[in-house]
Structure formats: C-alpha cells, structure tokens
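User: Need the bound-state model for adenosine-5'-triphosphate:
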Amino acid sequence: MLKPIPFQPVPMIAPQTASVLVETSALTRRFEVDGQTIQALHEMTLQVRPGERIALLGASGSGKSTLLHLLGGLDTPSSGQVDWPALGRAETLRPGKVSFVFQAQSLMPPLTALENVALPLMLAGQDTPDALKVAREWLERLELAALADQLPEELSGGQAQRVAVARALVTRPRLILADEPTGQLDSVTAQHLMDVLLSALDDDAALVMATHDAAVAGRLDAVWHMQGGRLSMITSRKGERT
Ligand SMILES: Nc1ncnc2c1ncn2[C@@H]1O[C@H](COP(=O)(O)OP(=O)(O)OP(=O)(O)O)[C@@H](O)[C@H]1O
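Assistant: Bound-state model below.
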C-alpha cells in the first residue's frame, strides 16, 4: 500500500548532488494565450535520483506534461532552473541519456518496428548494421521479434507502445520520461506494458511517468500528486525521501 506522507519541498542544495539525474529549482512555466497568462508550473523544486520510479498523478491540466518536457530539456523554463548534474547540459542530453515514451502514435510511420527501435542508436552515431542488431535484441527481449518487419499502422495499440518502450530503452538511458504511455490502452494491456517497462529498466535508471491511472501509479515506488502546477503531496512505498 502506498503510504501518504506530508509534502515538503526538497532542499535546493542536496548532499549528493553529483548523483542527481535531474533537479529543478523554483521551476516556473507560463504560457501566453490570446493575451492571457496561463501559469502551468509554479516554482517547483525537486530532484530525481538514480533508481527512482516516480508517478506523476494529477487531473488534466495540472502540469504533468509541461513538467516532463522541462525535465527532458524539450522546453525552457519561464523562470527558475532545471539541471542534470549527472548527465550534462540540455544541449548534450540526447540522444541516449534521456528517453521519452509518449501516449500514442509516436513511432515513425514509414519505418518498420525494427527500424524505429534502431533509430535512436543511429542518431547517437552507431552504424546501421550494429544499430539494427542491437534493436533486434531489444525486440526479442520484449517478446516483439515477430513484429520486427511490421509498420506502425500494422500494430495494435499495445504492440506499438511496447515497440515505443523498446525504442526508449535501446540506448540504455539514465532517465526515462513517460507521458501517459498507457493512456490509450485497456487495463490488462496497460498492466502488461508496465510489466515490460519495469522489468527492462536498468536498476540505476530513473523513471518519471505521468498517468491518470491510479493502478498504473501504484506500480511505482513514489507518487507525486500534482495540482494546479504544484506538487501537492508525495506518497511513497519506502517512506519519506531525504
Ligand atoms: N503549448 C502550450 N500553450 C499554451 N498553454 C499550454 C501549453 N502547454 C500546456 N499549456 C497549459 O498549461 C497547463 C498544463 O498543461 P499540461 O499539458 O502540462 O497538463 P497535464 O497535466 O499534462 O494535462 P493532461 O493530463 O490533460 O495531459 C494547462 O492549462 C494547459 O492548457
């Protein structure tokens, strides 16, 4: 059972900063739409360390996707900071060290499942035969070998998401950011995807996953509850973080 603990902001200067994968300090993101300011994140201060498995749980519009994009260097803060002490600077983060899994339809349509999985390795500079070999090993590991030559449009939603997981893990990233990867799957398929993802993750890799699904969140070690662009509470299996 997850045990509620009172939310306390993580101190801005942590004792083991070097092992922190990503940290934010007073991270704020505002969007201007038709002359109106939408404050998507309010001064969030947090850290993610190796091996952490974190669910971001919150209502639609609470800021989960915005936070994930900032944690992955896909977006820039309006104010405050995001840093990757153990990974380098935003410009050098990808390909390889940080991976994303999105809700759906993120595979490249003209490429086969195998080529989709090989792509991050090729972008990281690996030559094509080696990349395809490693990609095939990952498809086998995730019991997807039979789908290697299929195009994304020929895959079921669950199969496509498992291929997306293989693609996210093929570079052995340190940080995996997942934005509702089970959002369009039925509950059995969603749990299967979680089985695959959790069993294939390296022990010292961290996972931060946005979800609306409490059953999916319950598979992870900690739940960060988001409300109105803020962390409202952290629940944890292991007790309070330092
Ligand atoms: N590119 C954008 N332009 C304008 N407003 C945005 C943009 N991205 C996010 N927002 C706004 O920021 C707030 C947070 O959105 P965000 O997508 O992060 O929430 P979420 O918790 O991921 O929602 P959902 O669960 O529906 O995906 C919302 O009010 C949203 O409308």
